[in-house]
Write a sequence for this structure.
């Protein structure tokens, strides 16, 4: 009987368990959901309203994620001074689980995980304004936050078993291959910048801990990558506003004074037109006359070289577009992978090697320096000549430096704004005096104020050395020729020798490593900005100027036949194209030190020689379409504003890039549109600077260094100085400038 009872009990228990399992299985939605049957889907949703299993799973998953974050944070090695940050962060996460507004608001401003990293999107900035502008930050100081930028470098930990991969984008291979990949544009895919909104009490290393925890719980944390996290800039806090300092008020005061004096002098000048213009007071007033100074921008100097106006301004447009491309792609871009692919296109290769375009200005300056010196019947006072040259270059340069130091920090805000200030303002405040001494390309060039300003000391050095060589030649012709030949050969060979000794690349291409940190590469400091490595183009221009004067004064060579001028012009364009497009090929070739050294030595002289051939063909011959286009009158005033545009354009571009809140999409229409805007803004700035500062100060220098006229008939004011009859006459901001003596003129080789 007992055995029968045992059997009955066992059967009953088995039957009960079977019924329970069957019931549980039937209630499981995943087992009864046939694929691609919408009717069944709707039925299941109706039947599950009571149980609400999907909601429970979602909430549980969220809680599991937050619990994991909490657990990981608690198990970090927090120091005593970091405990306030830990407590605030734990409170944030607990209130986030309760969906409290302030906690959700702060967490919502953080990018939950990096997105688009494999497509070249390096910056993951979250919502900067949401972090910094919570509605309660004034009333609730305890809830204030700070915005920090964490730079992260991901390192692969399985290198010992890693195999050589021919195609890193094989969809069935590990994504680690892409993270380790470096494109032809030299863009690293294993580096990212993550914007984190953290409690205001957190120290930088505490924010690094929080970032590490977030990274571990992202999709990148599944690969076992080793992350190197650092916060380099000071975090931005909502209660730390940038106060106006003495530099700001100093610049504003200077601007108001210059504008007021210019307006007042212009009004007085035209209300007293019949007064004695030879009086010192009237001459000083005339120096500030905006009307006369503006007219000088419109004067055509020498019609035989009118193609230079178009060449000058269009070259500047190419430089602005290249810098727009470079600075834009050095910032937050969402489609960096596409940019890397386009480096092999014609437009991409031009942007990579646009640095050679700057040698056009060196060549043009050398050409015009030669024309001035050779046409001058007697040697001028070279020290006064250098002073005049220095003042012409330094006025606008000093104003831009002052603007960067005093005004630029207050012109924007954003997650990357501190980097903009660190990249320009701090260097200018530190080394402004080196820049004004024209030594910034040699002394502490790692902290050069305004990266593009390396051109200015180079130009000044070239002018000084060339004038000294010419003076030596006039006094000792044989020795002068010998020195000229030696220096010319040395200027061509030096870049190649330096490249060979230091195993440098053939040229400094505008790749990602350079545009994201232009002061970083060794080649930038060794060969790119040094005067002794860029002098060859200037000397070639000087020789071309001598040849131009010789041909134009000769009866046999004053005119180049039409067919030869056309052939020479298009041949020069071909050579410049070869120089432009062969440079980027070194990115895809195996490195050969001798080959790189040879190319480094000849590519810039070849470009300068080709440009000079083009100028000679257009000025001494006739090249249809090209000559008429480059001689178009509107280029005249625009070319004279090129110097101011050159100085200010990167400041405007940097401002537009560093105020962005999210990664921008790169496309060429966007680049062109932005470039046109920068050119317009830069020309307006250059015009204002010329009218209120450059022209008046240079006019005052002329008044100080020239003798006062003896009679009222010998008028000598501002730009109304009587010039000698010569084809070398040029206006104040043109190429040939009047010298310190009334009967001699000097050249301005500034951009």
């Amino acid at each position: 009987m007992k055995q029968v009872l045992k059997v009955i009990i066992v059967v009953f228990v088995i039957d009960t368990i079977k019924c329970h399992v069957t019931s549980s299985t039937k209630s499981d939605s995943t087992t009864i959901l046939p694929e691609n049957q919408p009717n069944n889907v709707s039925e299941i949703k109706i039947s599950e309203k009571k149980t609400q299993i999907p909601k429970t799973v979602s909430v549980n998953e969220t809680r599991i994620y937050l619990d994991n974050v909490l657990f990981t944070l608690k198990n970090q090695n927090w120091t005593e001074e970091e405990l306030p940050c830990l407590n605030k962060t734990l409170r944030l996460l607990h209130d986030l689980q309760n969906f409290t507004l302030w906690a959700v608001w702060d967490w919502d401003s953080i990018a939950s995980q990096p997105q688009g990293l494999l497509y070249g999107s390096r910056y993951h900035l979250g919502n900067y304004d949401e972090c910094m502008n919570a509605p309660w930050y004034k009333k609730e100081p305890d809830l204030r936050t700070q915005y920090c930028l964490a730079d992260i470098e991901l390192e692969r930990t399985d290198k010992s078993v890693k195999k050589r991969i021919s195609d890193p984008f094989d969809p069935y291979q590990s994504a680690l291959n892409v993270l380790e990949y470096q494109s032809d544009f030299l863009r690293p895919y294993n580096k990212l910048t993550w914007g984190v909104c953290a409690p205001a009490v957190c120290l930088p290393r505490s924010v690094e801990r929080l970032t590490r925890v977030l990274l571990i719980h992202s999709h990148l944390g599944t690969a076992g990558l080793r992350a190197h996290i650092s916060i380099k800039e000071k975090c931005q806090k909502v209660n730390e506003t940038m106060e106006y300092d003495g530099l700001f008020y100093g610049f504003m005061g200077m601007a108001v004074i210059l504008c007021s004096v210019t307006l007042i002098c212009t009004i007085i000048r035209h209300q007293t037109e019949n007064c004695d213009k030879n009086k010192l007071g009237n001459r000083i007033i005339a120096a500030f006359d905006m009307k006369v100074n503006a007219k000088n921008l419109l004067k055509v100097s020498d019609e035989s070289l009118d193609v230079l106006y178009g060449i000058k301004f269009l070259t500047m447009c190419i430089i602005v577009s290249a810098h727009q491309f470079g600075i834009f792609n050095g910032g937050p871009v969402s489609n960096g992978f596409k940019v890397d692919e386009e480096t092999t296109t014609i437009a991409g290769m031009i942007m990579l090697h646009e640095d050679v375009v700057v040698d056009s200005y060196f060549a043009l300056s050398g050409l015009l320096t030669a024309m001035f010196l050779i046409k001058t019947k007697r040697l001028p006072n070279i020290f006064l000549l250098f002073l005049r040259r220095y003042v012409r270059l330094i006025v606008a340069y000093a104003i831009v430096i002052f603007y960067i130091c005093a005004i630029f920090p207050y012109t924007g805000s954003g997650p990357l704004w501190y980097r903009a200030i660190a990249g320009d303002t701090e260097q200018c405040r530190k080394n402004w005096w080196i820049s004004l001494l024209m030594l910034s390309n040699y002394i502490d060039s790692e902290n050069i104020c305004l990266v593009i300003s390396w051109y200015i000391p180079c130009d000044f050095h070239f002018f000084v050395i060339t004038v000294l060589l010419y003076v030596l030649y006039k006094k000792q012709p044989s020795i002068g020729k010998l020195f000229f030949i030696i220096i010319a050969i040395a200027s061509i060979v030096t870049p190649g020798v330096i490249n060979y000794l230091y195993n440098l690349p053939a040229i400094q291409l505008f790749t990602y490593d350079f545009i994201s940190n232009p002061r970083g590469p060794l080649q930038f400091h060794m060969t790119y900005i040094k005067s002794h490595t860029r002098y060859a183009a200037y000397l070639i221009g000087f020789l071309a100027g001598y040849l131009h004067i010789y041909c134009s004064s000769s009866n046999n060579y004053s005119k180049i036949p039409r067919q030869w001028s056309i052939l020479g012009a298009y041949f020069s364009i071909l050579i410049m194209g070869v120089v432009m497009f062969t440079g980027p090929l070194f990115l895809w070739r195996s490195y050969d030190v001798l080959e790189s050294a040879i190319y480094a030595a000849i590519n810039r002289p070849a470009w300068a020689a080709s440009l000079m051939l083009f100028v000679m063909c257009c000025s001494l011959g006739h090249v249809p379409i090209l000559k008429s286009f480059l001689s178009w009158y509107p280029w005249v005033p625009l070319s004279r504003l090129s110097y101011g545009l050159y100085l200010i354009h990167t400041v405007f571009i940097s401002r537009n890039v560093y105020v962005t809140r999210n990664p921008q999409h790169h496309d060429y229409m966007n680049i062109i549109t932005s470039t046109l805007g920068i050119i317009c803004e830069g020309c307006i700035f250059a015009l204002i600077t010329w009218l209120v500062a450059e022209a008046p100060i240079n006019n005052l220098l002329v008044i100080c260094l020239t003798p006062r006229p003896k009679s009222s008939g010998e008028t000598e004011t501002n730009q109304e100085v009587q010039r000698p009859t010569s084809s070398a006459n040029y206006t104040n901001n043109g190429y040939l400038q009047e010298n310190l003596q009334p009967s001699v003129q000097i050249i301005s080789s500034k951009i």
The chain has a mean pLDDT of 84. The longest helix spans residues 668-705. The chain is about 60% helix and 5% strand. The two ends are 115 Å apart (CA to CA).
